[in-house]
Automatic annotation (TrEMBL):
Classification via Pfam families: ATP-synt_10
Top-level taxon of origin: Eukaryota
Classification via InterPro entries: ATP10 (IPR007849)
Residue intervals passing through the bilayer: none
GO biological process: mitochondrial proton-transporting ATP synthase complex assembly
UniProt name for this protein: F1F0 ATP synthase assembly protein Atp10
GO cellular component: mitochondrial inner membrane
Length: 344
C-alpha cells in the first residue's frame, strides 16, 4: 500500500493550523525577525563627518572637462586655391594585393579602427559641455588678404541644380557670407549671427551692395535618410528664398573629409559656422556656435571692409601723373639753364 509523502504531511500540519496556533507561532518568531540586519553597499555605511572643501586650486571632475574657446590666432584654410570638381566624395576601392595574409589583415584592421573611431555621440557630448558646442571665438578684425587661406570646394546639389554643383564658381568674384550647418540646432546658431531680426545692418549691406556681396548656405547632411527628407521638402526651401538665390543653397552629402573639418574648424558636426570669404575664396573671418560679445558687430564691420575693398579693386587705383619740374627765372637774371645734351 502506498504511503503519503512526509512533505505533504508537514505542509498540511503547518498551513492548516488553528488560529490559536498561528498566533502563538507569530509571537514566537517576531523577536527573531526583529533582530535581522539588512546589509547595504559599503560606500553608504560610513559617510564623512564634514564634506571636503575645495581650496580653489584643485579642479573638480566637472571643471577638468570644461573647454574654454579661444580667439583664432592665425588664418584657417588651405594654402591652395579651390577648384570646381574637387571633394566629390568618390573614393576608389582599396586593393590589398601583393602582401602576405598577415600584412593584409593588419592593414584592414587599421582601416576598420580608423573608420569606427568616429563616435557619433561625441558631437552631442561637446554640445553639452563646451558652451553649446562653440569651437572658437571669432577674430575681431578680418585677416589680411596676403595672409589669408582658402576655403575648400564643396560638391553637392542646390535648389536650382539637382546634382553636380560646386561652391567655388558661386563664391569667385564676390564677397560671400557662407553659413555652414548640419542640423536645425546649427541653423539656429547661425541665425544669431545673420538673422534678419538679429543683424539688420548686415542685411542692409547685402541689399545695398549692388551684387558685390551675397549669402551662401551650405547644409552638410551625410545621413542619407535626412538627405532624402530635405529633397522631398525642397519646395518649402524654395518658397523661403528668392528664385535668384536657389543656386546659393547647397546640400552636401559626401566629400567633407576629416582633413577639411580640421583645417577650417568644422570640429563639431552639429554646430553652425560662419565664414566671411572674399572674391578669391579666401577666409577673412570665421565664427562658430552662438554669437557672443561683439562677434555679430565684428561680422558686419568685416563685411563692410571687404565690400569697400572689392569696390576699390573694381574701380582701380587712381594714377597720379608726376608733375614736371619747372624752373622759374629770377627777376633781374636773364640767364636760363643750359640744356644737357643727350647722346644716343
Amino acid at each position: 500500500m502506498l504511503q503519503p509523502r512526509i512533505g505533504v504531511l508537514l505542509h498540511r500540519g503547518l498551513l492548516q493550523l488553528p488560529s490559536t496556533c498561528r498566533y502563538a507561532q507569530h509571537e514566537t518568531l517576531q523577536p527573531l525577525t526583529s533582530q535581522l540586519r539588512y546589509f547595504t553597499s559599503a560606500p553608504y555605511l560610513r559617510l564623512p563627518a564634514t564634506p571636503p572643501q575645495n581650496d580653489g586650486l584643485t579642479p573638480t571632475p566637472d571643471e577638468k572637462d570644461v573647454f574654454v574657446p579661444k580667439p583664432l590666432g592665425r588664418p584657417i584654410g588651405f594654402p591652395r586655391p579651390p577648384r570646381a570638381g574637387e571633394n566629390t566624395g568618390v573614393k576608389e576601392k582599396k586593393v590589398y594585393t601583393g602582401k602576405t595574409m598577415s600584412e593584409r589583415n593588419l592593414e584592414k584592421r587599421v582601416d576598420i579602427v580608423e573608420k569606427w573611431s568616429q563616435n557619433y555621440f561625441r558631437d552631442f557630448k561637446n554640445i553639452r559641455k563646451y558652451r553649446s558646442g562653440k569651437t572658437f571665438l571669432a577674430n575681431t578684425r578680418v585677416f589680411r588678404q596676403d595672409m589669408a587661406l582658402y576655403l575648400p570646394n564643396f560638391h553637392g546639389a542646390t535648389l536650382k541644380q539637382g546634382r553636380g554643383a560646386d561652391t567655388t564658381p558661386v563664391l569667385e568674384g564676390k564677397v560671400s557670407v557662407v553659413r555652414v550647418y548640419s542640423s536645425v540646432w546649427g541653423e539656429s546658431q547661425v541665425e544669431t549671427f545673420t538673422g534678419k531680426k538679429e543683424n539688420e545692418e548686415m542685411h542692409a549691406l547685402l541689399a545695398t551692395s549692388g551684387g558685390v556681396a551675397q549669402m551662401v548656405d551650405v547644409n552638410i547632411e551625410e545621413n542619407w535618410l535626412k538627405g532624402l527628407i530635405i529633397k522631398i521638402f525642397q519646395y518649402r526651401l524654395r518658397k523661403q528664398r528668392k528664385e535668384e538665390d536657389w543656386g546659393k543653397y547647397f546640400v552636401i552629402r559626401r566629400g567633407v573629409s576629416d582633413l577639411i573639418r580640421e583645417t577650417i574648424g568644422l570640429l563639431n558636426g552639429r554646430v553652425g559656422y560662419i565664414y566671411l570669404v572674399d572674391k578669391q575664396c579666401k577666409i577673412r573671418w570665421a565664427g562658430s556656435g552662438n554669437a557672443e560679445g561683439t562677434e555679430k558687430e565684428d561680422l558686419t564691420k568685416g563685411l563692410q571692409r571687404l565690400i569697400d575693398e572689392q569696390r576699390g579693386k573694381m574701380i582701380g587705383p587712381i594714377k597720379v601723373q608726376p608733375k614736371k619740374p619747372e624752373v622759374e627765372a629770377k627777376k633781374g637774371d636773364d640767364s636760363l639753364p643750359v640744356p644737357i645734351p643727350i647722346v644716343f
